[in-house]
Structures are given as structure tokens and as C-alpha cells.
Structure prediction request, 365 residues.
Amino acid sequence: MTRASASLSPPPGIPASLRWEGTSLAVLDQTALPHEISYRACDSLEAVRDAIVRMQVRGAPAIGIAAAWGLVLGMQQQAALPPDAWLAELDRGARRLASARPTAVNLAWAMNRMTIALRPLRTADTQAAIARLTDEAAAIEAEDRAICAAIGEHGMAVIPEGARVLTHCNAGALAVSAWGTALAPIYRMAALGRAVSVFADETRPVLQGARLTAWELQQAGIDVTLITDSMAAHLMARGEIDLVLVGTDRITANGDVVNKIGTLGVAVLARHFGIPFWVACPSSTWDPDTACGADVEIEERSAQEVTHLGGVPVAAPGVKVRNPAFDVTPAALVTGVITERGIARQPLASTLGTLLQPTRITAAR
Ligand code: MRU
Prediction:
């Protein structure tokens, strides 16, 4: 990476989350990290959907990109169908992929973008349509790289030299095609020789902070310290955190931020201790058709994620469990949102629209 411009390749030392290989999608198995770097070869729409459900690929932008390639695979395999049946299959496949995880709007957004791309060709031959779908998936992935680089550039404006940044979950290179959203400005600062350090919440129950964020920052040579989720308040109270920077799976029309479970607690703490709480995301994460966070479906995952740690049971057998995977941080607790088009500050309900509306593609419903 040069001083003048951010590279669009993944940060050094960090494997790509996804690799399109023409007739299959290689998915970095994030459930095996940090102990093993292995790729799952997904050769069908259902295999890609399964990799998303199992969180082998995770992070809002990455699951949108994976689903786009999954749709290409599915439609390649239906190429022998007559055009009408092929188009019906396209709609079914897009809905099937969009249902893999309900909370991140990027997934539905990517499916909608893929089907919209075919509108001008709806009556043409299926080979031409498959080529168009392939181009669109490649464009979504290429744009994601450029978007992350732009978020990195804009985000540096809110991170003072030497800042100690707390992040939650993983909004880094592993959650996108390269660089990340919340971690993009951190990588960019490091590349420019500016001092910055990160505290990574471990992020119970799936431990994206411990397994992914701490690992990828360490791989890239960034100063990172892993803490358990319950330690954040203590560090804030002692003045050891200068700002919070997280990603998001969806921002609703009023500016509510839906992100990994535990983000709300961090935001409440940040407000209490007078610490800025920043959110970073691409414009595809903004969902102006949903009024507020209370209207968003929050994914509930298996009890085993809570009752077990690394496959080892830690709770009484048969105990009742709740496992919501995301929570909603009210817009009022958010200092601002860093996007590829610039920074939206309060009041988010109007500033997000001014910044993002011109380029928006509606998410599929
Ligand atoms: O359940 P996950 O691991 O997919 O959740 C990911 C997050 O919550 C991220 O913060 C969000 O998707 C932003 S990723 C750039």
C-alpha cells in the first residue's frame, strides 16, 4: 500500500474471506480460525447457503458477496432449463439465499441487486443471463473492496493519533472482501505510520472478537489487546478507551444500529463515560424502508452456542437458554456513521438520507 492510495487487496497476512473459482466459491472457514486456515469449496447454491448458516462465512458484506456468487452457481447449474423456468428458479434461489440469515440487510440487498441486473435481459437466452449475473457478482465484490478502502480514508478523521479504540465482534477484513468496515481506518492509519491501538471484546457467545478480530489485527502487526466483554466498563472507567468503533448489520431509517449482541451494552457504557461511539458501514447496510430497530428480525441461534465453549459443555444440561445474535443500539447513542460517501453525524435520520439516498438499491422483501 502506498501513502497516496489504499490498496484494494486484503491486508498483508490475512487470507481472503472468499475466492471465486469459476465453477465454485472457496469460502474461508471462519469457524476453524484462528487455529486452522482452510477453505470450503462450495459448488452449489445450497452449499453456499449452508456456509452462511454455519457462519463459515459471516459479516454483513461478506455474506452478501457470498450469496451473490451462490446465486451464480445455482443458475449455472440450471442452465438447461427453458428461459421461463430458469427465471422462476432465479427468484426462488434468491429468496432461498436471502433467508439464510435474517438480520444483515446486505444479504437481501445483494439478492435484489442480482435480480435487478437481469431485468433488461429477462427474455434473452440463459447463457447471456448467466454471464450478466457473473458480472454483477464480480462487481459487488470489487465495489466492496473500494468501499472498504473509502471507509478507511473517511474513518481516519475521527481517530486521533495514538487513540485506543474499542471494537466489538469482527468488522475487519474477514467480514468483507478486504480491509473491513470498522477496522479499515485502523489498517489505513497503521499503513501511514500513525499510532493506534485496539481493544477487542471477545464477543460471546461465538467469540468473533477473540477468534477473528484479535487474530487478524495481530496478523497485520496492529497493536491489539483482547478483553472479555465484561471488562469494557472497567477500562472505560479508568480512561483507557478513547473511542468505540464497530460495524453494523443494518441501520434503520431513524438511525438505529443493529449489530452483534453486546453492542448495545458497549454503547450505553460509552455514553455513560462520555466516549464517542462510532459506527462504520457501506451504504448497502442502510435500510431506510425499515422505520426503526424494533422492526428488524433478530436472528436467534442455537442454545449450544451459549451452553458450550469450544465444544465443551459449561452449563447445566437442560437449562433454558436465550441466544439472540444481534441487538439494537438506539440512534441517540451513536456519535456518527462512517460510510464510503463520508460521515453522517446527528441527526442520523436526516443526514444518512442526504449522504446515501442517491446511490441506493432497495433490499429485496
Ligand atoms: O454474526 P456475525 O459474525 O455475522 O456478525 C457480524 C457483525 O455483527 C458485524 O459487526 C457486522 O456484520 C459488520 S461486518 C463488516
